[in-house]
């Protein structure tokens, strides 16, 4: 049975063998990873991705 991962940012479910990154134990899909890598500060989605990354960071603070 195939396992799936849920992206911490867009919540899409992708097969476990799909590319993407794990950041502090949270999975980020390839689409969101690429979007973040190419995101300009004045992009309308900038704050959305910024707050998503903050949530990942805050959930893993000691």
From TrEMBL:
It comes from the Bacteria. InterPro entries: Sigma-G_inhibitor_Gin. This is Sigma-G inhibitor, Gin.
């Amino acid at each position: 049975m195939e396992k799936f991962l849920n992206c911490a940012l867009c919540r899409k479910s992708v097969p476990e063998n799909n590319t993407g990154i794990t950041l502090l134990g949270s999975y980020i899909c390839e689409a969101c990873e690429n979007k973040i890598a190419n995101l300009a500060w004045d992009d309308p989605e900038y704050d959305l991705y910024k707050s998503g990354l903050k949530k990942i960071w805050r959930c893993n603070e000691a």
